[in-house]
Design brief:
The complex is a heterodimer. Chain A is α/β, with parallel strands linked by helices. Chain A contains 14 helices and 19 strands. In chain B, 54% of the residues lie in helices and 16% in strands. The longest helix of chain B is centred in the last third of the chain and has 21 residues. The chains are: A alpha/beta, B alpha+beta. Chain A: Keywords: Amino-acid transport, Signal, Transport.
């Protein structure tokens, strides 16, 4: 076995009785959407968001895994190149070579780095490789590279890497280099707990969880009394926390206060996932709707991994609701919003969505997403001090087609930087002392020092060109209701 | 598609087999008795059955010493299988390239594989 860092290329080809431009046009179109792993993209141009589905079972049954990326190079009639970060970082190229009159050789090539092979082996049950003992101080980052959450977690691992690289470039923590261990929880709480236990065994001082509340809870329980600090770095419903289990990120009640104002009484339909996140968010929503003088006409809760929303959308339409709250996440939110758009829901109701980051929005696509609103603590276009420089460093490190930086991945970056400062100040203190210092140290507004416990929110609306910020809600004014602008 | 690969992906869904692989990953080479002691939910006979499947699918290798058998991870075999899997799904993807609306017919050229690895 080659243990050096390497990329392996796998290729396959076929000749079709079509001119190159005709064969090229079959990529990503609804008619031939299934030919290259069901490729879906809303435009065939550089930067366009692409999703493909790899079958994991050899007979093509079973759920498969989504490859999420962007078109990096497009030469009409000749070449398509996809750069992807999920479930591993790699590249997929399709070449169209003329092979005689109205014949084209279509050649598909996949570049799979060592980490991609490790991901495949790990998915089949083999343990991840053990990092060498290099004396570095270890931190763990659990993100979601596969399953429903892969859509919103696309840049989380990259942002964790960027933070750790910056900490090391600035001299490390208390004189030691920091080493990041990463793992994919596959949107599965049990898998998250398993990865966290491995990180604790390998000596990680803290584990940052960029995943669902279900995964966070499982990690928190598994690492209780191990002396490892657990930090939830994404939007969540709040609730139980302890000095060794810190929960950062936006809270539904603050988002809803920013999104629902005093307006004519509205009929609401709540759509969410059947687990603790949506339970908490919908409880907050019922209170917010009542305060605004509206009422909840219906609610649907679906399991993570739902792809067919026909019945749910029918219920939404039958309810006569003119407002929809979605607390769906990742691929489920993508599928729901796309179905709403084709079913004519947009003409009947306005929708607010709590986990609508730039990546989720890009996968919904501008046709289906226009008009959706959300409120989050970070958008790429925010004028936060230090944001332009952060984005420049990110593009510099990961290239022009790296996935968007989002509230969810920026939170990961922030949390690691803030924890590194706490650890640097008192490296020998225990996890509880670090957790308390992490929660107390917040106060700023600049990138790298944002208040993650009670973040200032921005209300944004989706348009043809992405999310446009329409209002800023400071942490202080979150106590008041603010208008949902018409 | 060969049967060997089918079995490999059966293993994927089986938590007992995952547990066996995790135990071997942490402790290296172990006997059936050692493994059964670590995988508490099932008996020795069941562990043996799973080990046979894992060995057939190339994920685990067996070493005999006297009357005892010892098992360890076969990472090389697993990597080989991962590439068989990737090649299989790419071949199927180009095989699924329909020209749409009955325009033209396609002729498969069979799989083409680029040689070896390149460092990068």
């Amino acid at each position: 076995m080659h243990t050096t860092a390497s990329t392996t290329t796998v290729a396959a080809e076929r000749t079709v009785e079509l001119a190159p431009d005709e064969a090229f046009a079959l990529f990503g179109t609804p008619r031939a959407g299934s030919w290259l792993f069901g490729a879906r993209c809303d435009g065939v141009c550089p930067g366009a968001t692409v999703s493909l589905r790899l079958p994991l079972d050899p007979d093509g049954t079973g759920p498969g895994v989504d490859v999420l990326g962007r078109l990096a190079r497009v030469v009409p009639g000749a070449l398509l190149e996809v750069e992807h970060t999920q479930p591993w970082r790699g590249r997929l190229a399709v070449r169209f070579v003329p092979a005689g009159r109205r014949r084209t050789r279509v050649r598909v090539r996949a570049d799979v780095p060592r980490e991609g092979v490790d991901w495949l082996l790990h998915r089949r049950g083999l343990p991840l490789p053990e990092p060498p003992d290099d004396g570095a101080l270890r931190l763990g980052a659990i993100t979601t590279a596969s399953g429903t959450g892969a859509v919103y977690s696309v840049s989380a691992e990259l942002m964790a890497e960027l933070a750790v690289d910056e900490v090391n470039a600035a001299g490390g923590v208390a004189g030691r280099r920091v080493r990041l261990l990463t793992a994919d929880d596959a949107t599965d709480a049990e898998q998250a707990a398993h990865e966290a236990a491995r990180m604790a065994r390998l000596g990680c001082r803290a584990v940052f969880v960029n995943s669902t509340s279900a995964s966070f809870d499982a990690v928190r329980r598994r690492l209780e009394h191990t002396g490892v600090l657990v930090v939830h770095t994404v939007i969540n419903e709040g609730g139980r926390s302890s000095p060794t289990a810190v929960r950062f990120g936006e809270r539904p009640h603050a988002q809803l206060d920013a999104l629902i104002g005093p307006e004519p009484p509205a009929r609401w339909f709540l759509v969410g996932q059947a687990y603790v996140w949506s339970f908490g968010a919908h409880a907050a929503a019922r209170r917010a709707v009542e305060r605004a003088g509206g009422h909840v006409a219906g609610e649907a809760l679906v399991p993570l991994g739902t792809t067919d929303f026909d019945a749910t959308v029918e219920r939404v339409l039958a309810s006569g609701a003119d407002r929809i709250l979605s607390t769906l996440v990742g691929a489920d939110e993508v599928a729901f919003e796309r179905r709403c758009a084709t079913a004519g829901v947009r003409e009947r109701a306005r929708t607010i969505s709590l986990v609508l980051d730039e990546s989720t929005l890009a996968h919904i696509g501008p046709d289906a997403a226009t008009g959706l609103r959300t409120a989050l603590g970070y958008f790429q276009d925010t004028a936060l001090p230090g944001n332009a420089a952060l984005l420049a460093r990110y593009r510099d490190a990961f290239g022009p087609w790296a996935p968007p930086v989002t509230a969810l991945s920026e939170g990961m970056y922030e949390a690691i930087h803030q924890y590194a400062r706490v650890l640097h100040a008192d490296p020998d203190a225990d996890a509880a002392a670090h957790g308390r210092a992490l929660v107390q140290g917040r106060s700023g507004t600049a990138v790298g020092a944002r208040d993650l416990l009670r973040p200032a929110l921005y209300v944004a609306e989706a348009g043809r060109d992405g999310l446009e910020i329409v209002q800023q809600v400071t942490a202080r004014s979150q106590d008041r209701n603010t208008w949902m602008r018409q | 598609m060969d049967g060997r690969e089918d079995d490999a992906f059966d293993a994927l869904s089986d938590r007992v087999r995952r547990r066996i692989l995790a135990v071997l990953g942490e402790d290296g080479e172990l006997s059936v008795t050692d493994i059964a002691a670590r995988v508490s939910s099932v008996g020795r006979t069941t562990v043996s059955t799973h080990l046979r499947v894992l060995r057939m699918t190339g994920l685990v290798r067996e070493r005999r010493e006297g009357r005892n058998r010892y098992y360890s991870l076969d990472t090389e075999g697993a990597v080989r299988d991962a590439f068989v899997y990737l090649q299989t799904i790419l071949d199927r993807a180009v095989g699924d390239l329909h020209t749409g609306d009955g325009v033209g017919a396609s002729s498969p050229d069979g799989p083409a594989r680029e040689g070896g690895r390149r460092t990068g």
